[in-house]
Write a structure and sequence with these properties.
By secondary structure, the protein is mainly α. The protein is built from four helices and no strands. The chain folds into two domains: 32 residues; 122 residues. The N terminus is likely disordered.
């Protein structure tokens, strides 16, 4: 049996460097793991920010594209509306002119032709009247109130002028002058509605 006092004393100093080295190693590993975690978190945060920025930029781009499309469509619609009005206004004015021409031709024929010879001119008056009604129907659907009102006044005046071609003296009817005044006012109102320049005469001429 070894005597108790002969037992060797453990020299802990020889283990201290190893222990310290181990602790330093663990600390290094822990630090590296912590740094890696921070790096992952930062990368994830940056990625999220980039996605949000990209999403915001995409949304802004889509919104701008949609707005541009709306503006483009509105512009096209406006041009189409103006083109439609221009066509209908022109057709209506042409129809009014046909009524005037048919009435004047008949009045002139009353001084030189018999009633039988004037029958074709009566048919032309009726055709011109039908054309005017058709043009008026389209105009009343799209024209502003003032233009529709003037067109209605002119059509009534022209009808009175046309009826008067069959009675009384051929060229004694005040409605002819009245029709000319209403037509000038109508043309002026139409040009204003279409955005066309208007001169002192009511047309595009000064």
């Amino acid at each position: 049996m070894v005597a108790r006092d002969t037992l060797s004393i453990v020299d802990w100093t020889i283990y201290i460097p190893s222990a310290v080295t181990g602790m330093v190693g663990l600390a290094g590993i822990g630090g590296a793991l912590w740094q890696a975690k921070r790096a992952r978190e930062a990368a994830a945060k940056d990625a999220k920010a980039n996605r949000e920025a990209a999403s915001s930029a995409l949304q802004a781009s889509l919104t701008q594209t949609a707005n541009n499309l709306v503006v483009s469509i509105n512009s096209e619609d406006k041009r189409a509306d103006v083109a439609t009005k221009r066509r209908i206004y022109a057709a209506c004015l042409a129809a009014f002119q046909q009524v005037i021409r048919a009435a004047v031709n008949y009045r002139t024929a009353r001084t030189t032709q018999t009633e039988e010879e004037r029958k074709p001119l009566i048919e032309k008056q009726e055709a011109a009247q039908d054309m005017m009604y058709q043009a008026m129907g389209e105009l009343l659907l799209i024209a502003p109130h003032d233009i529709a009102q003037l067109a209605d006044m002119l059509s009534r005046t022209l009808l009175a002028f046309m009826v008067a071609t069959h009675i009384g003296p051929p060229f004694q009817d005040p409605s002819a002058k009245e029709a000319g005044q209403i037509q000038a006012a109508l043309v002026r109102a139409m040009r204003i509605d279409l955005g066309e320049p208007v001169g002192r005469s009511g047309t595009g001429h000064a």
